[in-house]
Amino acid sequence: MMTPGNILGMAHLKGLDMVAIADHNCARNLPAAKIIADAYGILLVPAMEITTREEVHILAYFPDVDTALRASEDLRAHLPKKKNKPSFFGHQQVMNDDDEVIDEEEALLIGATDLPLTDCRDFIHAHGGVAVPAHINRGSNGLLINLGLMPQEPFFPSVEIWPKLPCPMEAADGKHVLHSSDAHYLEDILEQEFSLKLSERSVAAFLQWLTEKK
């Protein structure tokens, strides 16, 4: 059910003005998502959720779809040297803006890359993106849960916190904080619960907000 059309359709029904779509270790569904988001008048932030060698999830936000696609293609060299097993992990479908399957990703996307945390941050920056640790206070892939602390290096000016669980205040001290639905099912997409004060309604303004000093 988590097709580009269904995701953006649900976002439209819930009155969301800006959404980020971040598949794991791949960006190939973003072209279709961009077409649909534009039709609904929703601002799409192109993204990926990259798993580091330590199995920490890092959100990579990009200025446009083409940049995200280039990063996604270069990330292939850092993925596990195994093919996906659809019978076990499910089909990794690539869709067009009519939610028709046009290809299937064969690389195993569910695993960790070979990029350590610092290298992952640098990889994202080198590809024109902004790195944000995902759901730092939740699950085995959250930075705080996985590493036990917020590292001084690499430095992240923004973090994502799962709002339904407690988080040590010092982990977000001096940082911008995001709250997202991290939805894997349509019903998990949040209502209008989080807003940002940006200089303008654009992806560039969002990326600037993520990186500027608080």
Architecture overview:
The chain is of the alpha/beta class and 214 residues long. The protein has helices spanning 4-13, 30-40, 65-75, 86-89, 117-126, 143-147, 203-211; strands at residues 18-24, 43-51, 57-61, 93-95, 101-104, 130-133, 158-160, 176-178. The protein has a single domain, classed as TIM Barrel (Alpha-Beta Barrel). It contains seven helices and eight strands; from the N terminus they run αβαββααββαβαββα. The longest helix is centred in the first third of the chain and has 11 residues, at 30-40. 33% of the residues are buried.
Key phrases:
7 helices, 214 residues, two-stranded antiparallel sheet, single chain, alpha/beta, 28% helix, 18% strand, four-stranded mixed β-sheet, TIM Barrel
